Amino acid sequence: MSEPGDGHGRHATAVVFGEWGVLILGPAGSGKSALALALLARARVSGVFGALIGDDRIWLEARNGRLVARGAPQTAGMIERRAVGILTAPFESEAVIRLAAELCPADNLPRFPEGSEGLVIEGLTVPRIQLSLGQSASDNALAVEEKVQAMLQVRRAKANFA
Predict the structure, then answer these.
(1) pLDDT tens per residue, range 39-70
(2) Label partner for 127 (CA 20 to 30 A): which of 13, 46, 65, 155?
């Protein structure tokens, strides 16, 4: 299944949280949609912008040195909540991905991740946070929000020294 223009389709979900495109990766049934919905709820509570890019299938493209994600146009604004059905959410047609959130088995996670190990996607290295499949979606959403805040602080510190 290949669709929206250029780029490669991937089994993933993506949202915009504040100014950050977040690509959510994990095996089928791992909670990608639940994490996306929890991030959208965190955005509302935190008073930052939140929108769905796409659920279940995301097209990724390297464009001008940035990773751009797009959802399928025919499912724009639609996301599945298990045991409830299809919900609608505010959406954006595309966004620059600045963080990959990877849902992993707990035994594959380092206790104290060191450095800023990234994930190479479409030839570009994207900062990554690894999250436990065993944690609740709201706990994982909080971890993503904390990672975004930490990355913003680093960016601001670099800007102040430039």
Answers:
(1) 999 999 999 999 999 999 999 999 999 999 99
(2) 46
